Each structure stands twice: as C-alpha cells, then as structure tokens.
Amino acid sequence: MNPYQKKRRWKFFLLIFAILIGIASVFYTDSFVKKMEREEADQFHLWVKIQERAMFLYDNDDYRVIVETVRANTKTPVIMIDSAGAITSFFGLDSTKTNYPVADAKLTYDSLYFVRQLRQMKAQHPPDEMNFLGKKFKAYYRDSFILTQLRYFPYIQMGVIFLFLLTAYAAFSSARRDEQDHVWVGLAKETAHQLGTPISSLMAWTELMKSKFDAEDDPLIAEMENDIKRLEIITDRFSKIGSKPILEDHTVYIVISDFIRYFKVRTSDKVKFSITGDEQVRAMLNVPLFDWVIENLLKNAANAIENEGSISINIIENLAKEQVFIDVSDTGKGIPRSKFDAVFQPGYTTRKRGWGLGLSLTKRIVENYHSGEIFVKDSELGKGTTFRIILKSSLRYEPTTA
C-alpha cells in the first residue's frame, strides 16, 4: 500500500469515527430531551389539576400555599381559553408584553403576542380540558426555553465541532505544505550541490579524451557531451526549486520540439512521437523547469505504453481567454476516473519501483512557478490518457472595431 492510499484510509476511518460520535451525541441528547418532555407534560397536567381545584379551595390558606408553590415551580408557559376561544388567563409568558406589573420594566400590551403564542402552543401539544362552575376551559402549553435549547444543542454542537475541525484541518494542512516545501527545497538544493562536482569532473574527462585521442569529431564523445549538458540542465532545475524563476517569452512549439528531439532518441523505437497545433503561440516560460514538466509527462506516457504506441502533443491557442492549451496524449493503459486527482499526490504511483513524485513536482512547477494549470483532461482504460496544461499566452490581442 503506497503512502497516499494509507493516508486516505486513515482519513476515512477518522471521518467515520467523527460521524459515529456525532450520531451518538444526537441520540443521547434526543433521549434526554424526550425525558424532559415527559416531565414537563406531567408538570403541566399537575398544574391544570391544581388550577382547576384552586377556585374551590382558595380560602384555605394551606392549599393556597401549595398552589403558589406549584405555580412558582412550573417553567412551561401556559394559556387558558374559554369555550368561545377567548384567552382568560396565562402563565409564564413575557411579562413586559402583558398587564402584569413587573419591577423596573416598561409594560406594553401586545395582543398579537398572545395570538402567536397560542398558535405555537396548539401546534406543539394537545390541550387539557378544565371544568369550573359548569363552564369548560382549555389549557395549552409549549416547551420551556431550556427544553427548546436542548433540542437544538446537538446540532449546534456538531456545527461547532465541524467548524473547529475545518479550521484545524486548514491550519495543519498549511503547516504540512510549508514543511513539504522546506523538504522539497532542501532536497533539491542539496542534490544540485552534490551533482556539481561529478559534472565538472566529467566535463574535464571528455576534454582530456578529445585531446588525447584526437576525437574532436567522434559521435560517441558528442553524445557524452549532450548527456553532460543534460546533467547541467538538471542541476540547474534543482537549484531553481524554492526560488522564484525568471520567466521569458518563448515560442511553445519550439521549446517542446527541442525537448522531444532529445527525448525520443533515448526512448524505445516502438513509441512514436508527434507534435501538432499552433506553431506561433508564445508564453512566458522558464525553459529548464518547463522541460522538466514535459519530461515527466512523456516518461509517464512512455511507461504507460506496454508494447507499441504513440505519444502526441497538440498546442492550441484560446484567443478569447488569451491562454495556451497543451494536450499530451498517449495510447497507454489509461487511468481510472476516480484517480484523476490522486495521480498528482506525492507518493502515488502504479509502478513497483516508482517514488510517485514526478506528477506532483510537475503540478508544482506549472501552478506555482508558471501560474498555470494541469489536470487529466480525459482517460479511458486500455485506450490512453490526455493531460492538459493551461498557460497564460504572452500575446495580446486588441478587439477590432468597425
């Protein structure tokens, strides 16, 4: 299992664990809320019975104390109506909107407030009926403020936890990217430093061979010099990682053609190369780094072709958006659609000896250094894959006017 798959599996397990915690919290709170609902309903029924008897026994001082105690401990708002639907009494409502005197409060009377409260109570719970002196009354109640808060608490809790996890994930991701950047830069510059000495020695040895054996025109020596120059370019690439590269105006077709000319002689003869499209389109490029992008794409394409096949590069200019499209297509084994994004993750590879860094580095060079974009445009298993690079064109077009 490669590191990317292992990381995805851990993320999946942690997500499932977080979901289970959230579900357990919701169920526990829901059972607690239902218990409180039953207690409030019992408290309301007791209040109704005592209220019904209070009119008969109100002269009894002992019973009056019991009535006042029950009323004081009832937290649920209550409204009583007569048989005609008119409100006769209420309890536990906002006292600033009633005629009941309250210390240090400005009193107002809001008749619509009672209508809204009664409508809400009717929607929540059925009434209790009361009989007094031959008249029928109905008592309604609604959930207490604490119960309402508890009902929404698990969802608020999950929202806060989700926001915290999102913030923590963003912070840790940013820290991880910074750490990866430092590793990339340190490794790249150290590699460039280590390559410097043997390259200088190889250059000296080739010059000695040419002078000692009179081999100025020897084709083998010429190929060795080409490879040494290639090593110099690679060293230059590594030395540029971590520092802002200098971008220059280049013809895209020429840059890619020059690299293909070098690359194809070092690849199997069974792989055919072709380049088509606009030969004049230009873009701001750092050639050593951009060659690295093309090299990684071509190597992946060549590795995907098991026997015979072809690799084609098509250059298209989007005049409307002033962009350059570079499509690199192969006739290899293809990529599953579910892996279109995964192929750019560090460590992702389908090869037994691969490190899974080529496409990750390619994406960084295109996006971070050339302000472009790269993605899998299309792929089909057994038929091939097309990668698309989008760069900003360095040509500017003024709209024509009649």
From TrEMBL:
InterPro entries: HATPase_C_sf (IPR036890), HATPase_dom (IPR003594), His_kinase_dom (IPR005467), HisK_dim/P_dom (IPR003661), Sig_transdc_His_kin-like_C (IPR004358). The keyword Transmembrane applies. Its EC number is 2.7.13.3. GO terms for molecular function: ATP binding; phosphorelay sensor kinase activity. Keywords: ATP-binding, Kinase, Membrane, Nucleotide-binding, Phosphoprotein, Transferase, Transmembrane, Transmembrane helix, Two-component regulatory system. It holds the Pfam family HATPase_c. The keyword DNA-binding does not apply. The chain crosses the membrane at residues 12-29, 152-172. It is an enzyme of class 2 (transferase). Residues 190-395 form the Histidine kinase domain. It catalyses: ATP + protein L-histidine = ADP + protein N-phospho-L-histidine. This is histidine kinase. It comes from Pedobacter ginsenosidimutans.
